[in-house]
Amino acid sequence: MLRLSVSEIISKIKAEEPFHAVAEDYSFTIKIDSYAYYICAAVHDGHQFRKELWENCIHTEYERWYEEDPATKQMIASHPIVIAGCDSRFEYDLNRDPENAIYEDAWGKQLWKEPLSKQEKDFSLQKHQNFYSVIHELVHKIESKYGAAIVYDMHSYNWKRWDREVPIVNLGTKNIDNERFGYFASSWCDSLSNIKLPYHTQTTAAINDTFQGNGYFLKYITHHFNNTLVLATEFSKIYCDEIAYVLYPEVVQSIEKELQVRIPEHAASFYKSFIDLK
Predict the structure, then answer these.
(1) From the CA atom positions of the chain, what is the Rg in Å?
(2) What Pfam families does the record tag this protein with (predicted)?
(3) I want to staple 169 with a disulfide (CB 3.0 to 4.6 A). Which of 27, 61, 192, 277 is the partner?
(4) What is the pLDDT of residue 274?
């Protein structure tokens, strides 16, 4: 894996060059084995937290992990294009717009003992901007190459905090063009409902049940690219014990193996339908 500046990463994408890299500030990783018509992303996978912020942060390391999306990068690691955040959303949230990316409070609890300085905020927001500069160039390259693109935006959520039965997988589609792309959201939901997982006799999947897909990552791409569909896909944390802080590697591996087949099949169906309509 190379350590590259944002400009070097963008240059490689423009040249359609395969590469594996980490951003020079270690804020995100990107892997491009080939320039396929689909992209996989895990913007909340990261757990890094700048050391200079530790003493000022009220939330514990466990509390931060609890609200992150651990192992979501591993679930999609085998696919040809994978981009993932390395930093915790508690430093800056890649799924929020720049004006709201740095939390003052998080899930009802004040985050900082003392307000962050402008310098501290600017340092984090530059990393946010760098990530979106790369995302913009990447989606532009894929949409320009194929005429359309599909992005699998992988997340997770804490199912134990709900006081009702919730699906194992939730798709958020409120902010996609449902008139054009609703069928592909439904077909993706159907495919996910057939996943076989350890300890579960049936994988339940639903659209806009627990979350509606209001993230900035989806909104940014949807706003800037007319022929790119982003599917915000959230697994409930049945792959870990969110209270005990224990990851279940056999469940993560099962999800990864299922997605190795299901993502390419679904992406191919999306691309074929787009080509047939041209």
Answers:
(1) 18
(2) FGase (PF05013)
(3) 192
(4) 81
Tokens coding 40:
């996989």
Q: Which two tokens stand for residue 65?
A: 């992990």
pTM surpassing 0.85? yes
Q: Measure Cα distances from 245 to 61, 70, 157, 256 in Å.
A: 11, 11, 14, 20
Q: Two tokens at 18?
A: 């395969």
**Among 48, 118, 33, which Cα is nearest to 83's?**
33
Q: Is 132 left (phi over 0), alpha (psi -120 to 50) or beta?
A: alpha
Unique residue bearing structure tokens 């569909």: 229
pLDDT attached to residue 235: 98
Strand partners, 22: 3, 29
The pLDDT of residue 223 is: 98
pLDDT at position 277 is 60
pLDDT under 50: residue ranges of the chain: none
CA distance 152 to 169: 13
Q: Which domains does the chain have, with CATH numbers?
A: 2-277 (3.40.630.40)
